[in-house]
Amino acid sequence: MVIEDDQKLRLRGLHRYLGAATNNEAEYHALIEGLKAVAPWNPDRLEIYLDSNLVVEQVKGKYRVKKPELQKLHEQAMELLKQFGDWTIAHVERDRNKGADAMANRAIDEHVERVKKARAAG
Q: In terms of DSSP bridges, do strands 46-50 and 87-91 run parallel, antiparallel, or are they unpaired?
């Protein structure tokens, strides 16, 4: 997940290994963590870009959240969004979301490295 200002200057990049998760679950987790991280800055306007069109449409209210594993995440995200007055959410193709994709890959790579070290030590 990447937080940028209105000039596209990266303010923060976050990553966390989730284990086995679908793309949509990972997108919701990134959205939730991003909203928590940006809240202290109290931005005037918030633009959110996700590469999961399903999550975008669910947050917009155009699609229902049918899967139980997404319902709780959706509720958390919607509750966090209430603190931001002016926000938009849009779908972006993965190849235009390279910063966030790099953060996700970094989380996986770091996890794999930790597992290798643990196996070598044990």
A: parallel
d(CA 77, CA 28): 7
Q: What is the CATH number of the domain that holds 79?
A: 3.30.420.10
Dihedral sign of CA atoms 104, 110, 113, 114 in order = negative
CA distances from 74 to 55, 103, 104, 108, 111 (A): 8, 22, 20, 24, 26
Q: What's the predicted TM-score (pTM) here?
A: 0.76
Tens-place pLDDT, residues 60-116:
999 999 999 999 999 999 999 999 989 999 998 866 665 555 545 454 444 446 656
* Orientation of helix 53-60 relative to helix 68-81, angle to 10°: 60
Q: How many domains does the chain have?
A: 1
Position 47, amino acid: E
Cα dihedral 98/103/109/110 (nearest 10): 160
Domain span at 109: 2-121
